Amino acid sequence: MKTHLNKTAFLFIIVVVIDIFxxxxxxxxxxxxxxxTNKISSLRKEIETSEMQKTHSSETLNFLKKExxxxxxxxxxxxxxxxxxxxxxxxxxxxxEQARVDVEIRSNKSQNDLRLDIACNGAFNNVMYFAALIxxxxxxxxxxSVLVEKKEKTAQWQGMIVIDLPGLGSGxx
Length: 173
Fold this sequence. Notes:
This protein has 173 residues and is an alpha+beta fold. The chain has 2 domains: 1-78; 85-165, Ribosomal protein S6/Translation elongation factor EF1B (Alpha-Beta Plaits). It is built from 3 helices and 4 strands, in the order ααββαββ. The chain has helices at residues 2-78, 85-99, 124-135, and strands spanning 102-109, 114-122, 142-150, 157-165. Strands 1-2-4-3 form a 4-stranded antiparallel beta sheet, covered by helices on one side. A hairpin with a 4-residue loop joins strand 1 (102-109) and strand 2 (114-122). The chain starts with a helix and ends in an 8-residue tail after the last strand.
């Protein structure tokens, strides 16, 4: 009976050890799975947050672009570069029509600046009005000289306006 009791106790101890091992293994794997699930959940949240930020950023940029575009176009109207130089010359000619003077434009390029010699003919008031319109253009220009003289034997006046457009001499061919 004693050996039977020893065998039973021995088997009981082995079963308890196996149970403890299985319970420990189960807890260990449950812990690892839980940690992996938490990491996956955390990564998923980071990805979702990142995607939301990207979407929000692109929406914000698109909104700002739409808001700024009209102002940008308005500013571009006042800036002259080699791409809208012809438009600028046409606007000077249109100012001549507005002031009722005949306009002739000649240009001279220096290293960095573009010099325009603008000749105009018309009544004195119209020539002076045209000169004032040129000087008040909302662009970066320097008026070098304005010369107004009466043509002999006529009621016509001749004006010569010399302006420099800084930075355009090298860009226009």
